[in-house]
């Protein structure tokens, strides 16, 4: 069969049972879980994969799953990914009432489109024409949230990295993968978005320590940790004019604990923040400035600041050859007004980490409403486009990569200039990790 005949067969495979990936997506929507806690989600996917009589490896990085199907001849191993997690979004119409977890980023459709690709490709007639293998991975914890809880688990040795793909990389789950691809939901898209770049991030968890005293009677005896935190945040704002536009620096702290009771000088204030930027150097530079601001806050009141810095995600970029190949299929099957070139995005994903290790693409698909991601407004309106059509476009990309003795996949792999080896990558992340206390008590 030639490539277009293989693609026709893949479409037939999927169309007959396209309710299965759509129903799974809707089931996951109704049972949202946050990162490293996606036990119900993982079990549902495991059970679904088992109905296709596949060997499934589960429990990778706690809740992750992996299964591989083989072409008839040896060749590269292409991974198609989906993400398991939601994030806490109180009042989202499909929130878990206990945990407030909700699929406000559309990861439930990613699991659906990953499964749709599998269904499309998983038949003898198709695999007979492909050289190499296709690995389907459901990966935990993409949303970088619940930092305090995850850091506690990290200190207890449950996992080392807060992002699921990072932990997968460390555990060796990507050691045999040559190319990785996944399709993410995106608000306000008519069809598909391809290419683009995105910010990386460093995460920080900060504690200002002061001294408590009666807020009305004895404020002079206290050391006000909230004042220290306010001065630190003002100092961060004062640095914004020093950030250059092309570095896309974003620093957005929140106070997660601002004091105990109002008639007491606060002796403990906790802050979480991300320091985001378009390059590793720019993020490190901004992070250095943030640390100075945090110390300045503590210094100004004579208090103490404990700064925990955690490796976040690396900036993302798509492999240009792989992205062009993906777009060829969009051009064949969609009108030009349904295909959008993505620019730089301020958000971050651990697909950026994979981009430093191998050729990747991280295209976007519509089907969502206009609600901002991570808010209670974000919902998927149409499941056919982000599950079935997105799954099909990925399956077609795999067919183009692995047909004809995997000629195109091998060319992409050969021309790709890897930024980091696995050991360099792990060293980079581990070097970012730090925990330091600065005491300015007189
Ligand atoms: Zn997302
Ligand atoms: Zn998200």
* Major sheet summary line: 6 strands, mixed
Spatial strand sequence of the major β-sheet: 1-2-6-3-7-19
How many β-strands, per DSSP? 21
The molecules bound to the chains, other than polymers, are: zinc ion
Q: Supply the CATH architecture of the largest domain.
A: 3-Layer(aba) Sandwich
Radius of gyration over all CA atoms, rounded: 23 Å
Structural class assignment? alpha/beta
CATH superfamily of the largest domain: Zn peptidases
Distance between the amino and carboxyl termini: 79 Å
Indicate how many domains the architecture comprises: 2
Q: In percent, how much strand structure appears in the residues?
A: 15-25%
**Parts with pLDDT < 50 across at least 5 consecutive residues:** none
How many separate helices? 13
**And the CATH topology of the largest domain?**
Aminopeptidase
Mean pLDDT: 97
The top-level CATH class of the largest domain is Alpha Beta
Specify the helix fraction band.
25-40%
Shape: elongated
Description:
This protein is an alpha/beta fold. The chain has two domains: 3-199 and 315-420, Aminopeptidase (3-Layer(aba) Sandwich), CATH 3.40.630; 200-313, Alpha-Beta Plaits. 39% of the residues lie in helices and 22% in strands. The protein is built from 13 helices and 21 strands. The protein has helices at 3-16, 19-30, 39-51, 107-121, 124-127, 147-155, 164-171, 225-238, 280-301, 320-333, 351-355, 384-415, 422-432; strands spanning 57-60, 64-70, 73-83, 87-88, 101-102, 131-139, 179-181, 184-185, 192-194, 197-198, 200-209, 250-251, 254-257, 268-277, 304-311, 316-317, 339-341, 344-345, 360-361, 364-365, 434-439. It has a six-stranded mixed beta sheet, sandwiched between helices. Strands 11, 12, 13, 14, 15 and 21 form a six-stranded antiparallel beta sheet that branches. It has a four-stranded mixed beta sheet with strand order 8-20-9-17. A hairpin with a 3-residue loop joins strand 1 and strand 2. Helix 4 packs across helix 12, helix 8 (225-238) packs antiparallel against helix 9 and helix 10 (320-333) packs antiparallel against helix 12. The protein is elongated and about 85 Å long. The protein starts with a helix and ends with a strand. The relative contact order is 0.17. The mean pLDDT is 97. One zinc ion (ZN) binds next to loops.
């Amino acid at each position: 069969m030639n490539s277009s005949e293989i693609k026709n067969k893949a479409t037939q495979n999927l169309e007959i049972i396209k309710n299965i990936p759509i129903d799974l997506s809707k089931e996951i929507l109704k049972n949202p879980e946050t990162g490293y806690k996606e036990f119900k989600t993982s079990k549902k996917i495991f059970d679904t994969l088992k109905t296709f009589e596949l060997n499934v490896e589960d429990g990778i990085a706690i809740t992750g799953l992996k299964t591989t199907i083989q072409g008839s001849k040896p060749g590269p191993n292409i991974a198609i990914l989906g993400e398991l997690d939601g994030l806490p979004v109180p009042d989202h119409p499909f929130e878990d009432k206990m945990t407030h977890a909700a699929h406000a980023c559309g990861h439930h459709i990613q699991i659906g489109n990953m499964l749709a690709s599998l269904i499309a490709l998983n038949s003898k007639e198709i695999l007979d024409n492909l050289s190499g293998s296709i690995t389907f991975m459901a990966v935990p914890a993409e949303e970088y949230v619940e930092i305090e809880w995850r850091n506690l688990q990290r200190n207890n040795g449950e996992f080392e990295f807060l992002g699921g793909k990072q932990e997968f990389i460390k555990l060796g789950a990507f050691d045999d993968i040559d190319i990785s691809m996944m399709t993410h939901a995106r608000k306000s898209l008519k069809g598909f978005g391809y290419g683009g770049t995105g910010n990386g991030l460093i995460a920080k968890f900060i504690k200002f320590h002061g001294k408590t005293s009666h807020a009305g009677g004895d404020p002079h005896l206290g050391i006000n940790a909230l004042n220290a935190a306010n001065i630190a945040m003002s100092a961060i704002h004062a640095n914004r004019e020093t950030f250059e536009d092309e570095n896309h620096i974003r620093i957005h702290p929140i106070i997660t604990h601002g004091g105990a009771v109002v008639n007491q000088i606060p002796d403990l204030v906790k802050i979480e923040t991300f320091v985001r930027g378009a390059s590793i150097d720019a993020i490190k530079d901004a992070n250095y400035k943030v640390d100075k601001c945090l110390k300045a806050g503590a210094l100004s009141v004579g208090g103490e600041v404990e700064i925990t810095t955690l490796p976040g995600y690396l900036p993302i970029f798509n492999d240009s050859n792989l992205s062009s190949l993906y777009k060829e299929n969009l051009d064949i099957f969609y009108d030009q007004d349904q295909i959008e070139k993505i620019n730089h995005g301020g958000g971050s994903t651990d697909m950026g980490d994979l981009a430093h290790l191998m050729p990747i693409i991280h295209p976007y698909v519509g089907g969502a409403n206009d609600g901002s991601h991570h808010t209670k407004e974000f919902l998927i309106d149409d499941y056919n486009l982000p599950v079935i059509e997105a799954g099909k476009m990925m399956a077609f990309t795999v067919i183009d990569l692995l047909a004809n003795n995997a000629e195109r996949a091998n060319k992409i792999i050969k021309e790709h200039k890897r930024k980091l080896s696995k050991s360099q990558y792990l060293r980079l992340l581990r070097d970012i990790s730090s925990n330091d206390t600065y005491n300015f008590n007189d």
